[in-house]
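PROTEIN DESIGN WORKSHEET
SECTION A - STRUCTURE
LENGTH: 287
C-ALPHA CELLS:
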C-alpha cells in the first residue's frame, strides 16, 4: 500500500472530492479491515497510533479513487456526526494532518462525485502499490462475517424479534445454549441456525475464546462496547473465525467463518450474563 509517499499524497490531496469518511480508532474501525485495531491498521499499512486516524474517501479531479488518512480524528468525527444527523458539513482536512494517501477504497461507496469521470483506480504511475478494494459481497469469509455482525448490531430490534425465546433451553439447561429449532432462512437470505442437541461446537468455541479474553486481554479493539437503549450496552467481539454481537441485558448472536450466512442465537442461560458483563468491563469504549 502507499505509505507517506509525497507524490501520492499530493495527487490525492489536490482537488479531492470527499464522498464519505470513517474512523479508524481502537473503539471504532471498519470491521472489513480486521478483527482488531492493530490488524485494521496493518491492512492499510499504518502503525496503530494510540489516538487513531480518520479515513477520508473521495475522488480526485480525474475521478480516481483515493483514501486519505489523517491524524485529526476529531475533524472526521464531527463530519460523520453531522452527516448522520442529516446536516451538511464540509470536510476539508488540512494538508498538515495528512498521514498517507492510499489508492482505491477499502469500503464500498455507492455515490460518486459530480462532473468528474466515473470512479476508477488511479494508474500505477500515481500510486505506490495496488489499490484498496472492498471485500467481494458474493464470497463468505472473515470480512463478510464481521459485516454481518455489524448489521445485527445496527438492526438489533429487527434481528431480535426473529428469535423465539421459547426455543431456548429452560433455566438449568446448558448455559448460553443456541436455539434448538434448526435452520431457518430469513427473507434477506441470511439463515438463523439452531445448534444440534448438546450445543453447537462453533458456539462453544467462540464463547470459550471470549471467556479467555477476560483472563488474558486480546489485541486492542477486539472487544468493543457501545451505547444501547435502556442503559444496556452493545458488545462486539471477534476472534479467529468467529464474531459475537450481544446486548448486555439480552441474548447474543454468533457468526462463524465455517457456516456461511448463518446467524446463531445464544440464549442467556446462567453463564452468558456474567460473561457479557465481564467483556463489557474490559471492552474499548468510544470517547
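SECTION B - SEQUENCE
RESIDUE ASSIGNMENT:
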Amino acid at each position: 500500500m502507499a505509505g507517506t509517499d509525497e507524490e501520492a499524497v499530493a495527487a490525492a490531496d489536490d482537488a479531492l472530492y470527499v464522498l464519505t469518511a470513517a474512523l479508524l480508532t481502537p473503539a471504532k474501525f471498519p470491521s472489513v479491515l480486521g478483527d482488531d485495531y492493530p490488524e485494521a491498521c496493518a491492512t492499510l499499512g499504518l502503525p496503530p497510533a494510540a489516538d487513531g486516524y480518520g479515513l477520508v474517501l473521495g475522488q480526485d479531479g480525474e475521478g480516481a479513487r483515493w483514501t486519505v488518512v489523517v491524524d485529526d480524528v476529531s475533524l472526521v468525527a464531527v463530519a460523520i456526526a453531522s452527516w448522520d444527523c442529516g446536516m451538511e458539513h464540509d470536510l476539508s482536512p488540512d494538508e498538515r494532518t495528512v498521514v498517507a494517501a492510499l489508492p482505491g477504497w477499502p469500503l464500498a461507496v455507492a455515490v460518486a462525485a459530480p462532473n468528474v469521470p466515473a470512479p476508477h483506480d488511479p494508474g500505477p504511475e500515481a500510486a505506490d502499490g495496488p489499490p484498496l478494494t472492498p471485500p467481494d459481497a458474493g464470497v463468505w469469509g472473515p470480512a463478510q462475517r464481521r459485516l454481518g455482525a455489524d448489521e445485527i448490531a445496527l438492526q438489533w430490534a429487527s434481528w431480535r424479534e426473529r428469535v423465539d425465546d421459547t426455543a431456548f433451553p429452560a433455566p438449568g439447561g446448558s448455559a448460553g445454549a443456541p436455539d434448538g429449532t434448526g435452520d431457518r432462512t430469513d427473507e434477506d437470505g441470511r439463515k438463523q441456525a439452531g445448534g444440534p442437541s448438546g450445543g453447537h461446537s462453533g458456539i462453544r468455541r467462540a464463547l470459550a475464546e471470549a471467556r479467555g479474553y477476560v483472563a488474558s486481554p486480546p489485541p486492542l479493539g477486539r472487544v468493543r462496547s457501545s451505547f444501547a437503549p435502556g442503559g444496556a450496552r452493545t458488545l462486539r467481539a471477534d476472534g479467529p473465525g468467529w464474531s459475537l454481537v450481544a446486548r448486555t441485558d439480552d441474548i447474543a448472536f454468533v457468526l462463524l467463518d465455517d457456516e456461511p450466512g448463518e446467524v446463531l442465537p445464544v440464549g442467556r442461560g446462567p453463564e452468558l450474563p456474567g460473561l457479557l458483563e465481564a467483556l463489557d468491563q474490559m471492552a474499548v469504549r468510544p470517547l
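SECTION C - NOTES
DSSP finds seven helices and eleven strands in the chain.
The first helix runs from residue 6 to 13.
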